[in-house]
Amino acid sequence: MEDLIVLYEDNHIIVVVKPQNIPTQADSSADRDLLTMVKDYVKAKYEKPGEAYIGLVHRLDRPTGGVMVFARTSKAASRLCEQIQAGDFEKKYLAVTVGHPRDRRGRLENYLVKDEAANMVKIAPAMIEGAKKAILDYNVLEVNDKISLIDIRLITGRSHQARVQMMGQGCPIFGDAKYGGDTLAKTHKLALWSYSLRFEHPVTKQVMVFKVFPPETSPWKFFAVDKYINVVKPE
């Protein structure tokens, strides 16, 4: 479990950092996934017989890294899911994009359709079968030559949402070969990072805030990331 970074844990939740390029849960690749890693960690640490219960309440795309919370009881999972459905579970990301949106800040509202076979998502008219509304707020923090640092708050949690909606603005996320963000460099990891979670503890009701920095590598190193991520203690 040396690869698992645990930020916080108690009897009800566990907050960890998802590494990039591993799946959140088991998929057809059969690669080691984060959910299994968390289960193994809890089982080993607390010497639990059988499989440890870990509830998956939200996901990150495989190439995306950053902070995630898992539930350690079914009651905690249910209450966290209720917060997500009510819009009270705040997820914020940092992204480096190729280019930048026309407006420095704004809200994007689109309908997205997923091609399951190709694992691709595209913007589509609302009346298309299977189209789901996707909403995010963004704020351009810095522009550095041909790339930009953008703060993104997801209002909905659609598959590939931030990647597709930013591409729709003509500024795909750096390193995103699937959606045209690899024009400047084809070997970089996706520059999308879940840097902040804010939610109410499912049992104590305390407001919990967790923030983590993206890797200190290209393209993140070209921006003053520290300036925008303030480490905040739980309220």
Give the termini separation.
30 Å
Q: What is the 3D shape?
A: globular
Question: What is the residue-mean pLDDT, rounded to a whole number?
Answer: 93
N-to-C series of helices and strands: EEHEEHEEEEEHEE
Provide the structure class: alpha+beta
Helical percentage? 10-25%
Secondary structure: number of strands: 11
The number of helices is 3
Characterize the quaternary organization of these chains.
single chain
| Beta fraction | 25-35%
Estimated radius of gyration: 18 Å
Largest sheet: 11 strands, mixed
What are the low-pLDDT stretches, counting only 5+ consecutive residues below 50? Answer: none
Task: Explain what this protein looks like in three dimensions.
- The protein is α+β, with helices and mostly antiparallel strands and about 240 residues long.
- The chain is built from three helices and eleven strands, in the order ββαββαβββββαββ.
- The protein has helices at about 35-45, 75-85, 160-170, and strands spanning about 5-10, 15-20, 55, 65-70, 90-100, 105-115, 120-125, 130-145, 145-155, 190-200, 205-210.
- Strands 1, 2, 3, 4, 5, 6, 7, 8, 9, 10 and 11 form an eleven-stranded mixed beta sheet that branches.
- A hairpin with an 8-residue loop joins strand 3 and strand 4.
- The chain is globular.
Topology readout:
Layout: E1 5-9, E2 13-18, H1 34-46, E3 55-56, E4 65-71, H2 74-86, E5 90-98, E6 105-115, E7 120-124, E8 132-144, E9 147-154, H3 161-168, E10 192-200, E11 207-211
Structural descriptors:
34% strand; single chain; 235 residues; eleven-stranded mixed sheet; alpha+beta; globular
